[in-house]
Give the backbone structure.
Amino acid sequence: MKTILKIALGIIAAIGGFLDIGDLVFTTQAGALFRYDLLWAVVLGVVGIAIYAEMTGRVAAVSGRPVFDVIRMRLGFGLGLGALIASTIVNLLTVAAELGGIAIVLELLFDAPYDMFVVTAAIALVVIVALLPFGGIERVFGYGGLLMLVVIATVVHQGPEWGDVARGFVPSLSSSTLYLYFVVGVFSAALMPYEAHFYSSGAIEEGWTEKNLKENRLNAFIGYALGGLLSIGLVIASGFLFHPLGVEPSDLGTVALPMQGAFGETGLLLALGGMLFCVSGAAIDSSFAASYNVAQFLGWEWGRYKGPRKAPRFTASWLVFVLLGVAIAQSGINPVEITEYSVVLAVVALPLTYLPVLLIAGDRSFMGEFANGRLATFFGWLYFAVIVVLALAAIPLLLATNGGGG
Amino acid sequence: MRKEGDIYVVHRLLDEQICDSDGRRVGRVDDLELRGDPPRITALLVGEGLYPRRLPRALARLARRITGPERWGANAMRIPFEEVDDLGSTVKLRKKAEDLGLGMGDDPGRWIVGRLPWN
């Protein structure tokens, strides 16, 4: 009974922790521009992150290897270093985007200038990380993120034409480069690589073994799938409200407006509160991911569970990544723009970090009886093909659409 | 995994995580020393001074300027293969890191963050 409760709480935290600034920005814009047409791309991304996270969690639990351990093993030093540099750039942009996102939400909530809140947010995050153990950090932000369930209530309250919504789940391509750009963006926002880096390292932080494989499956397939419903809800809520008006959302505050439209002040506050938890949690996850990766690649001691005394280089690198994130967020570039670049570049860096995990997860000499079966192998390679196609398309689309500006 | 007998060296040993007898993570197998005929593994080589030779030639010169040429004891350590206890999911050593000159980068005395009050 106690294990069931523990697993249930883990799943709930996974649902609440699903959204980050990339999801908020891309789903709201996708809804406003294309109404429900891109829902299928959200589903594609959510299934992708579930498959990828399940594999990384299983590899970590069975062989004790987090993502960048696997990358160093399979790609060697040279190519692995390339994957590390690419991932670090993307993770750093993500840290900056999430920190900027926190500052925008605080600006909206408290009506004080943005710049002040970036520093405040970073200090608050460092204090929270210093005070709480690893499990506590994950739970606090995961549970807080559940405030975003107001999105689901909003969609039900709006009562869209469900037939139109259903048609959005059927994949369709169009010759519009902006549409294709958003296919890449919506997919990539769901499948951000830092999530897998963090998830697999978290499995080791929490001492997972083969006994936790069931928990891993449920977290990935139920937790992320239900978390993905929030992304779907954001597309529908935005598509319902903004698409008929021809509004093109360009700031983070727009994300909360459908909830205000449905439930007034209460809806707005719930949405902003949920966004605050989601984006803060993601700021911690992405900054941890950046330092996990460096430490694992170079063989340093690492982990929140070790503390700064035993893992000083890991801790120092984490503080450096937070500081660099603050510097980028303060640079005057609009955080929504930083978000778009971080999300689109993420899919470019993804193949090199996805492939080694897929190879190890299927390798019986590492995984024994827990290696990928036929189904996991099929879907694993299918997604690898999807990721490679989108990675190749991402940069040309970014340039052709002028960063989604049309 | 067995220490004696056949292993796929590049597949399973090169780049592997090294842990000392206390389970501390103390570096990776950055290179291997092979001697004899037929060649046998005589030592694991660890340290940032070895990174340049793991890079494509075009980058090696640049890397050498950053990390310096490999110098035993300073930026690269030679761990005799006899010191390896077990090859499992990590390379486990028989001794503590300090006794082999490893893990100095994570010496808390060298880092201000090592004195931070959180644990």
Chain A touches chain B at residues 63-65, 69, 72-73, 76-78, 80-81, 129-131, 296, 298-302, 307-313, 315-316, 319, 365-366 (CB under 8 Å).
